[in-house]
Structure formats: structure tokens, C-alpha cells
Design brief:
The complex is a heterodimer of chains A (708) and B (336). By secondary structure, chain A is an alpha/beta fold. Chain A contains 16 helices and 27 strands. In chain A, the strands form six sheets. Chain A has a seven-stranded mixed beta sheet, with helices on both faces. Among the domains of chain B are: 49 residues, Uridine Diphospho-n-acetylenolpyruvylglucosamine Reductase, domain 2 (2-Layer Sandwich), CATH 3.30.43.10; 101 residues, 2-Layer Sandwich (Enolase-like, domain 1). Chain B is built from 14 helices and twelve strands. In chain B, strands 4-5-8-6-7 form a five-stranded antiparallel beta sheet. Classes of the chains: A alpha/beta (708), B alpha+beta (336). Chains A and B meet through helix 3 of A and helix 9, strand 9 and helix 14 of B. Chain A: Pfam families: Ald_Xan_dh_C, MoCoBD_1, MoCoBD_2. Chain A: InterPro entries: Ald_Oxase/Xan_DH_a/b (IPR000674), Ald_Oxase/Xan_DH_a/b_sf (IPR036856), Ald_Oxase/xanthine_DH-like (IPR016208), AldOxase/xan_DH_MoCoBD1 (IPR008274), AldOxase/xan_DH_MoCoBD2 (IPR046867), AldOxase/xan_DH_Mopterin-bd_sf (IPR037165). Chain A: It comes from Spirosoma fluviale.
Chain lengths: 708, 336
């Protein structure tokens, strides 16, 4: 589909870039809503128990305070309405440290914040369940059927008889999403309809969750979210803050703004759970895998469960006759875990791809060769043919571009001054799906100028949705970019898939393309003429002298796509240097080679891939949320404590896309790149650290103390 | 944050007077730490006296003939300006390196030199008011002692407090034997030697320094030294920038003839409630040859007294290696 004459596939700069860097792009709290009141949340300081007394007398009397809302006076909400993580002020029960137990609404933000200090809470405490090391023994089979034991052949027997095997446990810590824009909402009621300015990766999902929880109809809720300052999964599902802002606005009968602080983010909007992953690989001496077992132990929240799919990569990456994937989970007094940056695949691939590196080392085989040797012809988990699979190309192209031949097979063989240098590789994958999405395209002619407006309730996390949809519509309508306007991020627009799970680009671009093809068909029919070559909608508007024309489509995935297994694949290459005195690791160079079907815009795609890579480097080296097991509080509450990579942590980043035409997965052959960028990254870095130092770190993050 | 009064001081005399009249008043300089702590409800001043407009920003030779008298750095000068001043870059590169190793460009542009010395610990139990902390609330207990204490002290801690002091700049100042000049409301000036400026926690961890309430840091004075070309600030941390030190070492070696060390200056960060002068290591090195073996023996001598907690045992080995590496780097003029 990548055609020289097309705008898609060209590296244009993002359409919304100027608006963003000049501050004109309005994020949730930027809307100039008049007569605003301000809400500030207050939170529990125990992790388990009940509120005996909550004394708000002094807070209610504080200057400027309009309302104090707690479980004692909150309206009845539907706790099963789709808001994640509870904390809806419906009961005195405390399920995790930092649970919302109320909010103060005041004339100013400062007055509201001050009044929260005047609230006195007496608790009946219970012993919190937060010590994962101890609780892991009690983990049981999750309720989610997707996490049932998946067996093929007899992995345990094959492991027993193996010529070569690796059996190791890999640990990943709790992580937080921490988008730069913390979650924030403005709620404004107009009669019985509420408008919620709120960052939402799934516009229609936020609408229905808010409506169901507030016990009103979806059409009574409007979500406006044209720009999102990052989400990483935490703005996919919606959390109590969204609904509580609406409750507060109703209560004080005026618009209310509620923005979380960075410190509040650690226990308000989900987290990535801790995972204890045992990976066992068995192989023949020439490197053919005979068994793969991936056994995961993790935790949920105290009442609800969410288990990220750490075994997913292990299902599809390698051809292995005997496979076992199991999950066990235990309830813990923490906020509900949720989708986080390459959910399951990023953490799971750390375990699988570290183990593959360990196996390659044991076999004295190049780790790239080991992977190629176990390349599956079909999806081993379901026997379906691949829609396309470029895993081997990624490895081979990457090896050449990165200079893999310079890697020493044995560790500690490359020392430069005080630094040990190492190379690492790891592969990754993420499934590709198109989801139902509707769109309206409107054409308007003034003289010889045709303008198009494309409308759908899509979301842009900052990754380039506006840009790729402008390119797609311009191509499909025969218009220059400047004649296309894309309107998204509003639940009043036709319903669309979420910007989640790498489905955004495929769902939105195909829907927009389908809508543009449909409008062209309709204009053709209307003209009643025969054309030698199919004219564009723009040409038809001119030739038919129409001033306005529009159509709507409800785009669905290709039915035939079900017959195939569709995934993006990548190969990640890292060069690290490790200070041999201090153990500080630096990623000097990183290369991600990705086969993800049609790349609509190589520039925004590159940004998205290296963004994912950088998050992966963070996962490998710096990110960790630490709980105090006595009280269940996170001691890592700010960016000073929760270390995401800073500019200085990042060396040369390079992204290469493998050409891949995959019309089996969807019409445009778009497979999505949102998640795959982080998958395999942590393992590539950890494998490079091993190659540099001879130390195999199986517990992330790889901080200096682990390399002494 | 709680309500407070705000006033802007026009001169040091009125600033110190205003503070002297109210035990709950605080100076506001760069605000990079105080405002954060107020937002967290850790600091609850009833009055803020803004001293950011006072002209205590100059960097100048103390006496005619710079080499004799050393350099005076204004208490309210910005960290960025101090780090980049040609006289500091040339004569005290250790200080430049240490300042630039701290915080971020944006914070250094706001933060003042005096304020830097008065940073409070980043211990998470200090920062979260629901947690016990003797420094924030004397008598409430120490959350870190048996809690998450990977970042905490291995020297000079007490049962009451195991927090570490966070500044990088101050670690270099300790190695440079800086003098802190202060002035009080009566107009009296005094000089505090750097080793006496910060305190160990003992039974009064709520007191970080020996500065009396209302005293204003007017300047930080640097005596001349003979190790500008043989100095190095090493900072080991969990990420390459904008992270507090796991361990830092400020090292300077004044060399005599034939590879002999006349005197060594070594201060450590990330290990104690104050900048930790590694006096045992310094004593060991005085008069010795600058060899890898002697560096190691000096490090061993210093680290022998370390008393780690549950999660920071690595700091003993890391401290040892860091002393060796910093001395090696100092000898090589900062080159690996």
C-alpha cells in the first residue's frame, strides 16, 4: 500500500504540532469554563480496614468551601458501572492505601486543598495484604478464562528429558503509568446532561462508564478529549475521579475541576502489577526447542482481578511442540492493576527473551540463530496461518544495521577504559486487530476549492492520530492535506474504537478510508456517469457542482481476517556500557526493527517506536514502584523517586521499519505500533548487560547495586 | 498548603528582623524545595519572607590577589551561575561538577547557593505526612529505620533518624573546606566552618543545621586550594540525571613531588545526615604515594565503620569502589 504518489507513507510533521508547542491545544483542564469551582481529593492513610469516624466539621466551615463529599453523604452510584478501581465513596471500607475517601469542593483550588487538612478520620485497621513475597504462596487460578492453563503436548515431560534446559525465575516490579498529564476532569451539567472534559483513550468507553455509574443514560454524558497528554493504559479504563467530578458539580450546582497531583497518581488510576515469572526452556543440542513453560504468579486488587497476559509472547513466538502457560494470582490491598505499556507482552517478553538468551549461551549458539531456528510457520497457539510475519527479517536486517558481528560471544570481552561494553538482542510481538469504528465524512465546495471534514470519536494520545487520518482522508478523497480537517475526541461524534492495544491506527484509518471510498461511490452513483478511471470525490464535487455532501460509515473488520493470526513483530538491539566500578548502565545505542504492516507516517511512527523503546529502557534500568509492606503505601510518590529515563539516559535511538504488505489483516494493511515498541526492549538491555558483565540480572530494574 | 503571609524583603537587615519576630516564619529564596514541601504539607510556615530580591548574588575574590584569599559566592546567587562562573570553573572545577550533577537545568536556574545547603532530606517518610518521621514530627518514630531504606545512611545515623542529606553542591563544599557566612537580626555576622554547618541526627533530627532561626546565609567562602587540576566529583545514581546520589564522592588530591600526596580531601554524599568528610581515608593518604593500592586501602579504612541497614548494604561496597574511582579520576584530571 505504500505508494509514491500517496500522502500516506510520507513523513509529514504532525498536524497538531504547532498548536501543542504554542499552548493552543486545550487539554482537559484548559477549557475556559466559567464559574468553576475546584475539587481536591482526600485519601485514606491505611491500606485495609474501615472508616469509623470521618469528621468534616472544620473542613466544611473553612473559607470558600462549598461541599465536602464522603461516603456518608455521597449519592448512590452503580459500583459495577464500569469505573475501575472502586473508591467511589460508597462505603466506609478501605481496600488500599490512598483510596479516595472524600473530596472537598471550594471556590479556589487552594481553599479546597487547605480544607482537606482539616478532616479527621478514625479507622478500624486491619492487617493489609501487601507483602507479595509472602502472599505469592496463596495465589490461585484467576477467574478470567483467558488466563486458564494453556497446555500443548507435555512440557514437563519434555523438560525432564531435555538435552539442554534453562529454568529461571524473572521478577518485574509494580510500575506506574505516569503520563506527563495527570488525570484531570472538568464537569459541567446542563440540565440532566453532563459534559466531561476528561482525557480518555476510549471516548465511548468513558461515556458509558460514567453514565452507568451515575445511573443515567449514555446520551446524557458527553466526553470531550481532543488531546491527551499521554495515557499508557491508565486513561483506557476510567477511574473514580471522572465520576466524582460529575458528582461534585451536581452537588454544588456549578462546573467543577478536579486534577490529580503526581503523588495521587500512584493510587488513583491503576498500576502495572508485580510479576513473578518462571520460564523453562528445553532444547536439543542443535537449538531446536522441545518445551516452553511459562508460569506466572501475580496479584490483583483485594476485590477485583486483573492479570496482565505475560504468557502471550510465549504462545506465538516460537515453534515448540510442548508448551505450558499458567497464571496464578492473589488478592492484594493495592489499587486495581490495569493495562500498562505493552500489557503482558513487555513484562512477559523480558522473561521469555532473557531465557532465550540464557539458552543460547548454554548452547554456545548465537541468540539470533537460536531464534531463527525456532521460527514457526503458523501460529503455534491456534494453528492459523500468519497474515504476515516478518520476525526473521527484523532480526536479520537489524543484525546487519547494528553491527551484530562485532559482538563477542563470551561476556566481559569488550572493555573500554572503566566501561564494559555488551550487545544484546531480543524479539517481540503484539497482536494486530481492527475494531468496529464509525466515521462521517463531510465535503464542502466553495468555488473550485473542496474542503473535507472527517469526524469520529477517536482519541489521540499524542501519537499522531490527527496526522495519519488527515493523510488517509487526503489520499482517499484526492485532496491536499490542508483541505482536510479531522475532528476527534468527542463522544457526540460517531462511535470509534479506543486508542488502546495497538488498535487505533488500524481501526480509525480503515474507517476513514472506507468512509471516503463510500462517499466517492455515492457521488459516482449520483452523477450517473461512467468514467475511464475512478475519479476522486473531490473531482466529483467539482464536476457535479455540489456545494455540500456527506456520508457516514460503520466500518467493520474484514471477516476473512479471522482466518489469520495477525501480529506485529520486532527485533531489538542494545549496546550498553557498564561502569565496572559503580555498576551504572548506559544504553549507548538502541535499534528497533519492526514489521508492522503499512506505516502511515514514518515520522510519527518512528517517534512512537522510540518512545516505546525508551519506556522499555526505563523498565530495564530505572522504573520501580516500591511498597512499604507494613502499611501498604508507595514510597515512590514523585518523579524524584519513580525514575523514568531522563534525556541523559538515552543514547542513539534508531528505528527501522520492514516493508510489509498485509492486506489479510485489514484493507489498509495497518498493524499498529503503539504497543510493540516496548516489547522485547527490557530483555535486549538485560541481555546486553549480561554480555558486558557476565551478570544475569533477572530482577528488574537493573540498578547499580545489582551489578556490584 | 496552608494559609501564610507573604512579604518581600528589601535588605538583609529587614529580612532577618522579620524572621526573628516569628518562629514560624521562613525565608523564600529559589523556592525549589520549600514550595514542594509546603504543597506536601510538610512545611507549614505562617509567614514567608521573600529574599530572592536581595543582592547577595556576587561571586568575587575575597581579598585582592585571588590566590591568597579565595573566592566568595553570594548566598542568593543561582546554582547555575555559580557552576558556570569562570573563576569557579577554573579554580574550583570540583564545585562546578557537583552543582551540575544535581537536580536539572530548570531547577538549578531557580535554586540559590544558600538554599541548596538548606535542602531537606528526600526520605519518603519525611515527605509523606501520614508516615512516622522524627525529623518532621519529633517523637512520631522513624519510618525508614525498619522500612524501605535502600537510599538511607550508613554513617552517623541514630535510632531516631537514618535519613541522608541530598545536596551535591554541599559535598564539594565540604571537600573544599568552605566557610558559611551568616548574619542575624542584630546585624552580627559569624563564620561557620562547613563541617560544623550540618548536623548528625542524634536525638534532634528535626535540626538539619546549626544555623539559628533568622540567620541569613550571606555568602559561601572558598579558601584557595592546590588541587584544582586533580579533583573529581563522582555521583552514582539510579539514572543519569535528575536523581539523588546513591553514593557520591568529592575528591581532591594535592600532590607533592614524586607522586606523593601532600593532602587528600574526600567528602561523601548519600551516606549520612550531612556531607561526610572521609577523614580516615584522608589521613591514610597523607604523605602516601598515589597508587591504586593506596586508594583501595584508604577506602577500606573509611568504609570499615559503615553501619548499613536492611536495604542499603550495597552502599558499603559501592562506597568503597566510589572512593577508589573518584581518587583515580581526580589523579587523571577527570578523565577515565
Amino acid at each position: 500500500m505504500q505508494d509514491k504518489n500517496k500522502l500516506t507513507g510520507t513523513p509529514i510533521s504532525r498536524i497538531d504540532g504547532i498548536a501543542k508547542v504554542t499552548g493552543k491545544a486545550a487539554y482537559s483542564t484548559d477549557y475556559p469554563v466559567k464559574n468553576l469551582a475546584y475539587a481536591v481529593l482526600f485519601k485514606s492513610t491505611i491500606a485495609a480496614g474501615t472508616i469509623r469516624i470521618i469528621d468534616t466539621t472544620a473542613a466544611e466551615k473553612a473559607p470558600g468551601v462549598l461541599a465536602v463529599i464522603t461516603h456518608t453523604n455521597a449519592p448512590k452510584l452503580n459500583v459495577n458501572g464500569g469505573i475501575r478501581g472502586g473508591a467511589l465513596l460508597q462505603s466506609p471500607e478501605i481496600e488500599f492505601y490512598g483510596q479516595h475517601i472524600g473530596l472537598v469542593v471550594a471556590e479556589t483550588f487552594e481553599q479546597a486543598r487547605y480544607a482537606t487538612h482539616l478532616i479527621n478520620v478514625t479507622y478500624d485497621k486491619k492487617e493489609p495484604k501487601v507483602d507479595f513475597e509472602k502472599l505469592a504462596k496463596e495465589a490461585t487460578l484467576p477467574k478470567d478464562k483467558e488466563r486458564a492453563d494453556a497446555k500443548r503436548g507435555d512440557a514437563k515431560a519434555a523438560l525432564r528429558d531435555a538435552e539442554y534446559k534453562v529454568e529461571q525465575v524473572y521478577e518485574t516490579p509494580i510500575e506506574h503509568h505516569h503520563p506527563l498529564e495527570p488525570h484531570a476532569t472538568i464537569a459541567e451539567w446542563n440540565g440532566d446532561r453532563v459534559t466531561l472534559y476528561n482525557s480518555s483513550q476510549i471516548v465511548n468507553g468513558a461515556q458509558s462508564a460514567a453514565a452507568n455509574t451515575l445511573n443515567i443514560k449514555p446520551e446524557q454524558v458527553r466526553i470531550i478529549t481532543p488531546y491527551i497528554g499521554g495515557g499508557f493504559g491508565s486513561k483506557g479504563g476510567q477511574w473514580a475521579n471522572l465520576v466524582l467530578t460529575a458528582v461534585a458539580a451536581k452537588q454544588v450546582n456549578r462546573p467543577v475541576k478536579l486534577a490529580l497531583t503526581r503523588q495521587q497518581m500512584v493510587n488513583s488510576v491503576g498500576l502495572r502489577q508485580r510479576n513473578h515469572q518462571k520460564v523453562s526452556l528445553a532444547a536439543t543440542k542443535d537449538g531446536k526447542l522441545t518445551a516452553l513453560a511459562h508460569e506466572i504468579t501475580t496479584h490483583g486488587a483485594i476485590k477485583n482481578e486483573f492479570v496482565e497476559p505475560c504468557g502471550d509472547c510465549s504462545k506465538v513466538m516460537y515453534d515448540v511442540p510442548n508448551s505450558l502457560i499458567t497464571y496464578r494470582a492473589v488478592p492484594m490491598n493495592v489499587i486495581l492493576p490495569t493495562y500498562t505499556r505493552g500489557p503482558g507482552k513487555s513484562t512477559g517478553s523480558f522473561a521469555l527473551e532473557s531465557a532465550m538468551d540464557e539458552l543460547a549461551y548454554a548452547l554456545k549458539m548465537d541468540p539470533i540463530e537460536l531464534r531463527i531456528k525456532n521460527e514457526p510457520e503458523r501460529d503455534p497457539s491456534n494453528g492459523k496461518p500468519w497474515s504476515s510475519r516478518k520476525a526473521v527479517d527484523c532480526l536479520q536486517v537489524g543484525a546487519k544495521a547494528f553491527g551484530w558481528e562485532k559482538r563477542k560471544a563470551e561476556p566481559r570481552q569488550n572493555q573500554q577504559g572503566n566501561y564494559l561494553i555488551g550487545y544484546g538482542v531480543a524479539a517481540g510481538t503484539y497482536p494486530a486487530h481492527q475494531r468496529p469504528t464509525s466515521a462521517i465524512v463531510k465535503l464542502k465546495r466553495t468555488g473550485n476549492d473542496v474542503m473535507a471534514t472527517v469526524e469520529l470519536a477517536a482519541a489521540d494520545l499524542g501519537t499522531g492520530t490527527y496526522t495519519i487520518l488527515t493523510q488517509t482522508a487526503a489520499d482517499a478523497l484526492g485532496l491536499p492535506l490542508r483541505n482536510v480537517k479531522v475532528v476527534i475526541g468527542d463522544s457526540d461524534l460517531p462511535p470509534a474504537a479506543g486508542a488502546v492495544g495497538s488498535v487505533g491506527a488500524a481501526s480509525y484509518a480503515n474507517a476513514v478510508n472506507d468512509a471516503c471510498q463510500k462517499i466517492t461511490d455515492e457521488l459516482l452513483t449520483r452523477s450517473g456517469k461512467q468514467f475511464f478511471a475512478r475519479p476522486t470525490a473531490s473531482q466529483l464535487m467539482l464536476s457535479e457542482k455540489l456545494t455540500e455532501f456527506q456520508t457516514r460509515i460503520d466500518a467493520k473488520p474484514l471477516e476473512s481476517a479471522e482466518e489469520y493470526s495477525a501480529h506485529s513483530f520486532n527485533a531489538n538491539f542494545a549496546e550498553v556500557s557498564v561502569n565496572r566500578f559503580t555498576g551504572m548502565v548506559r544504553v549507548n545505542r538502541f535499534l528497533a526493527v519492526t514489521g508492522a504492516g503499512t506505516i502511515l507516517n514514518p515520522k510519527t511512527a518512528r517517534s512512537q517506536i522510540i518512545g516505546g523503546n525508551i519506556w522499555g529502557i526505563g523498565m530495564a534500568l530505572t522504573e520501580e514502584s516500591i511498597l512499604d509492606p507494613r502499611w501498604g503505601n508507595f514510597v515512590t510518590r514523585s518523579f524524584a523517586d519513580y525514575h523514568v529515563p531522563a534525556n541523559l539516559d538515552i543514547g542513539d535511538m534508531e528505528a527501522i521499519f520492514i516493508r510489509e504488505d498485509d492486506q489479510k489483516s485489514n484493507t489498509l494493511g495497518v498493524k499498529g505500533i503503539g504497543e510493540v515498541g516496548i516489547v522485547g526492549v527490557a530483555a535486549a538491555v538485560a541481555n546486553a548487560v549480561f554480555n558486558a558483565t557476565g551478570k544475569r540480572v533477572r530482577e528488574l530494574p537493573i540498578t547499580p547495586d545489582k551489578l556490584l | 498548603m496552608r494559609p501564610f503571609t507573604y512579604s518581600r524583603a528589601n535588605d538583609p537587615a529587614s529580612a532577618t528582623k522579620e524572621l526573628a519576630g516569628n518562629p514560624n516564619a521562613k525565608f523564600l529564596a529559589g523556592g525549589t524545595n520549600l514550595i514542594d514541601l509546603m504543597k506536601e504539607d510538610v512545611e507549614r510556615p505562617s509567614a514567608i519572607v521573600d529574599i530572592s530580591g536581595l543582592r547577595l548574588t556576587e561571586i568575587k575574590p575575597i581579598a585582592a590577589g585571588f590566590a591568597k584569599g579565595g573566592l566568595s559566592i553570594g548566598g542568593l546567587g543561582k546554582n547555575t551561575d555559580a557552576a558556570n562562573h569562570p573563576l569557579i570553573r577554573q579554580n574550583y572545577p570540583l564545585l562546578t561538577q557537583a552543582i551540575l550533577a544535581g537536580a536539572s537545568g530548570q531547577i538549578r536556574n531557580m535554586a540559590t547557593n544558600g538554599g541548596n545547603l538548606l535542602q531537606r532530606t528526600r526520605c519518603p517518610y519525611f515527605y509523606e505526612v501520614a508516615m512516622p518521621c522524627n525529623k518532621r514530627e519529633p517523637g512520631s518514630g522513624c519510618g525508614a529505620l525498619e522500612g524501605v531504606n535502600r537510599l538511607h545512611a550508613i554513617f552517623g545515623a541514630s535510632e531516631k533518624c537514618v535519613a541522608v542529606y541530598p545536596s551535591d553542591m554541599a559535598i564539594a563544599l565540604a571537600a573544599l573546606d568552605a566557610i558559611v557566612k551568616v548574619k542575624n537580626a542584630s546585624g552580627q555576622e559569624r563564620s561557620i566552618s562547613f563541617t560544623d554547618f550540618h548536623r548528625l541526627p542524634g536525638d534532634t533530627p528535626e535540626r538539619d543545621t546549626n544555623l539559628a532561626h533568622g540567620e541569613l546565609i550571606t555568602s559561601i567562602d572558598l579558601p584557595p586550594n592546590k588541587f584544582a587540576d586533580k579533583s573529581y566529583y563522582l555521583k552514582v545514581r539510579d539514572r543519569a540525571s535528575y536523581a539523588f546520589a546513591l553514593i557520591s564522592v568529592a575528591a581532591g588530591l594535592e600532590m607533592g613531588s614524586g607522586n606523593k600526596i601532600v593532602q587528600a580531601r574526600i567528602a561523601m554524599g548519600g551516606v549520612a545526615h550531612k556531607p561526610w568528610r572521609a577523614l580516615k581515608a584522608e589521613q591514610f593518604l597523607a604523605g602516601k604515594e598515589a597508587t591504586a593500592e593506596n586508594f583501595k586501602r584508604a577506602a577500606d579504612a573509611e568504609m570499615a565503620d559503615a553501619k548499613p541497614l536492611e536495604h542499603n548494604k550495597f552502599k558499603v561496597e559501592l562506597g568503597n569502589r566510589s572512593i577508589v574511582l573518584a581518587l583515580q579520576m581526580a589523579m587523571n584530571g577527570g578523565k577515565a
